[in-house]
């Protein structure tokens, strides 16, 4: 029995493109780009191609991550030289590492919201001033530890939530101490059993007035009515979330970490524009600077991921004060130290300028980008406060 081969699976049979009728010389038409293999074929063949793509991506990830972390500037120079197909593309690499790093950050960075969320009840159980102070110091020590773990990473935006919790702990502890001593609060008002002034009315103060959606809304003259309504809706959400933040700082941390990757995606082309201005005399294309910016940010996300992963065994298997904990502290310190060294070395290799001018430009770019990053993370924190 004769079986007619399927032209979709055999380029030798499909001698011409079925779309534009041009002669075929491979698996894709050189004229219109249509592949010879379409989706109208057995499901097993389609799944096989999908698995090939997945495993090929995995192989390129392995070939890409090692030079990305250990060979500053190597990947960018490879792309400039036209050797690209063996590595993961810069944007895909950055996207993959950014999503992975901040996903791990949400899992590993913890804020002790339980202790900070109900300090009045915790202190209400204390019957002496010494017991209140002991409970206060224990909770503040836990939150200080959380701040130390977040310092120096993009997760540091969540520190504002921890500091809000610390302030509430101090206020609740002071109120309980005054209650035990039978003294009024600083305003001369009676203290309730919950440890707070009975007539305290929380409110958000804007331009010297307590914000109120009806009596004292935020109004910008040049904004249309719907713009001012939207702005006041966001203020209301943020104001409501402040109280939730005091009860659950972890929710704010998760909200901030979820918006930071998007913030970095916005900053990458801006950083490429800064590189373009710093090396204007080299007459490089903007896309070259963009590749450098993508590789730089991918490296920083990979560094953050390694720091987070190194902190997991340090917290799990190495209690504070032990020699093993000191080893992990040194590992994390070396990982953090490698970040500026790598980026400086990368700038030197890619742009090939003398060390003095390289160090000068690196310092200027670092300061400007740090300021820009601080504003961006602050904006992310505000967005996180509204969206939490």
TrEMBL record:
The keyword Transmembrane applies. InterPro entries: DUF3667. The chain crosses the membrane at residues 93-111, 255-278, 290-312, 327-346, 358-386. Pfam families: DUF3667. It comes from the Bacteria. Keywords: Membrane, Transmembrane, Transmembrane helix. This is DUF3667 domain-containing protein.
